[in-house]
Amino acid sequence: MFRGEKINITENRAVLHVALRAPRGESIVVDGENVVAHVHAVLDKMAAFSNPVRSGVRKGHTGKRIRNVVNIGIGGSDLGPVMAYEALKHYSDRAMTFRFVSNIDGTDFAEAVRDLDPAETLFIVSSKTFTTLETMTNAHTARAWSLKGLGEDEKSVAKHFVAVSTNAAEVSKFGIDTANMFGFWDWVGGRYSMDSAIGLSTMLAIGPDHFRAMLDGLHQMDEHFRKTPFEQNLPVLMGLLTVWYNNFFGAQTVAVLPYEQYLKRFPAYLQQLIMESNGKHVTLDGTEVAYSTSPVYWGEPGTNGQHSFYQLIHQGTRLIPCDFIAFSRSLNPLGRHHDMLLANVFAQAEALAFGKTREEVKTEGTPEWLVPHRVFEGNRPSNLLLAERLTPETLGKLVALYEHCVFTQGVIWNVNPFDQWGVELGKVLAQRIIPELESKTAPTLGHDRSTNNLIRRYRKSKEAG
Question: What is the pLDDT of residues 249-296, one digit of tens each?
Fold first, then answer.
């Protein structure tokens, strides 16, 4: 991977998210080119764009300052930027508003822009091909909304839209100045791209210096993974533990439980990173696997989850390994809050490990009939990741930790963590169904009976108004 070999064999691509945070001057060659030089050229271009927007020098079509940024993307073009913005909100420019639109449900866009002034709003459209159905549907809706608020002046599009894409022709056709098009490469998978130009909204929020600090944290973990002996290698150890509980103890899920409110979107980010990577049923050579691959990842920030699903983790019939994430120092110290927060995460890890025996319950004077209900089996596994403070650098380390944990798992399971053919079939079928829903006359339907009936029911509802 670090040499730029094309280890994504089903797409014949290198896998080089590690190049996105390689220091200036390093060399990683793909097809005869040093890609690190290209990465830093894009980072410099991002900084040259972000600084005047953040300072108010770069204004909108009417001369008003840009105060709102709306990122339009889906999958890795949304989950990474949303997670990073929420995680690093403490470091963001609070004079600016950031919104994220991904769902093709019109409600997502309508609510994102409801209270925004088009004259003060910049849209970032993130789509490598500039043809992604959900993203481009939302982008064209945003274009119409922006034009309506700016007197239908087509020239305004260039002032209020930028693109993260590689398709210059479509970007230009949309009305975006290709000077404001930020590129990325085939060797960056969407779920591994938050530190590429896909992170433009992140850089606008926290500034180029903090963005580069995040890149440095990512690189530090890359080097740890690359150089550290396996018995002390954090991503390797976490990957091995996942395989151990998944394949030898039948654990079907892993709970990620950040005791840090800023990381509230981190479990959702990991869901794509991990399950889209290793949710595979065949090995690298196409052979059906005879064992479980990726478990289901899920979670919520603590202490909220303690009053929700922890009951199942402690006393349910399923083994659920947990990753607790906590920080020694709070970014918002308020009285006793942080002591109480940390006491809870330490207590949960202890309770999962050691539980509470029948004898311990009985010595508390519990009635015999109630004893079984208050017994905790314990011997339930958890990792507790304790860092000093949530900084851009620390977030980078945390993201790279899980990226390389995923790679470790994939190597052991002998699957390709870097393709995602499973997302294709539904998208192809949707493209077939769209004209059948929009047709003015009743279409001839060739789906299964259930799908045909659903289409007819929907069309009947539309016709009824």
Answer: 999 999 999 999 999 999 999 999 999 999 999 999 999 999 999 999
What's the CA gap between 36 and 2, in Å, rounded? 12
- Closest among 292, 259, 253 to 271, alpha carbons compared: 253
Cα maximum dimension of the chain: 78
Q: Is 427 a catalytic residue?
A: yes
Q: Quick one: tokens of 221?
A: 């973990």
What pLDDT shows up at residue 192? Answer: 97
Please answer whether residues 121 and 113 qualify as being in contact, where contact means their C-beta atoms are separated by less than 8 angstroms: yes
Count Cα atoms within 13 angstroms, Cβ side, for 336.
3
Output the pLDDT for position 56: 97
Q: What percent of the chain has pLDDT over 70?
A: 100
**Is 160 one of the annotated active-site residues of the chain?**
no
Say which amino acid occupies 81: P
Q: Cα–Cα distance between 83 and 272 in angstroms, integer?
A: 12
155, 227, 307, 460: the active-site residue: 307
DSSP classification of residue 6: -
From residue 44, alpha-carbon distances to 24, 56, 160, 289, 319 in Å are 11, 19, 21, 44, 47
d(CA 225, CA 173): 43
SS3 of 118, please? Answer: helix
Strand partners, 99: 70
Q: Please identify which of the residues 173, 337, 427, 462 carries the catalytic annotation.
A: 427
- Residue 148, both tokens: 């309506």
Give the integer Cα–Cα distance in Å for 282 and 261: 38
Is 276 known to be catalytic? yes
What's the predicted TM-score (pTM) here?
A: 0.96
Q: Which of 86, 120, 260, 276 is catalytic?
A: 276
The closest of 14, 405, 33, 417 to 188, measured between CA atoms, is: 14
Tokens standing for residue 402: 């899980």
